[in-house]
Design goal:
This protein is α+β, with helices and mostly antiparallel strands and 151 residues long. Helix content is 40%, strand content 26%. It has one domain. Helix 1 packs across helix 4 and helix 2 runs antiparallel to helix 4.
Length: 151
């Protein structure tokens, strides 16, 4: 159950970024990039839960770890593009904007959104991961055995 990035499937990559974004960040980036287009709901934001599966030691047999709250929705633009979103937690506004960005990424605005929204978001998420890893590495303890001359 590793975090996967598939260069051959760009939609998978941007959906992953949108789902992992900090609360309100996608909306802030989108609002600075462009005026939000009109859309209609295919599925209004709704809150539910999903089963999370895990593996012991990342290699064992999968088991049901527990449930996680998610918010999902789907929108369609006036031009016909459909956007979907599943967001961890109970934030209907974040799900709405993620679905809107998904739909917009299927239009001619995709390259502009990649530059002003997805690339900065990816940089921020990577910086956050690096900071967390550095903080964890600072607590690492290296155990070593000193060689004694009694052998």
């Amino acid at each position: 159950m590793k975090d996967t990035f598939d260069e051959n499937n760009p939609r998978k990559a941007w959906m992953s970024l949108l789902a992992k974004a900090p609360q309100g960040r996608v909306a802030a980036l989108l609002d600075t990039a462009m005026k939000r287009p009109a859309f209609t709901w295919l599925r209004a934001p709704e809150i539910g839960s999903t089963m999370v599966r895990a593996r012991a030691a990342a290699t064992g047999a999968p088991f049901n770890l527990g449930e996680m709250t998610v918010t999902r929705c789907a929108v369609t633009l006036a031009t016909g593009e459909v956007g979907h979103a599943y967001i961890q937690g109970r934030n209907k506004a974040d799900a709405e904007v993620a679905a809107l960005v998904d739909a917009l990424m299927q239009t001619e605005a995709a390259e502009h959104l990649r530059v002003v929204l997805l690339d900065p978001l990816e940089s921020e998420i990577e910086a956050s991961k690096a900071a967390r890893a550095a903080k964890a590495a600072a607590t690492k303890v290296d155990f070593f055995t000193m060689v004694r001359g009694e052998d």
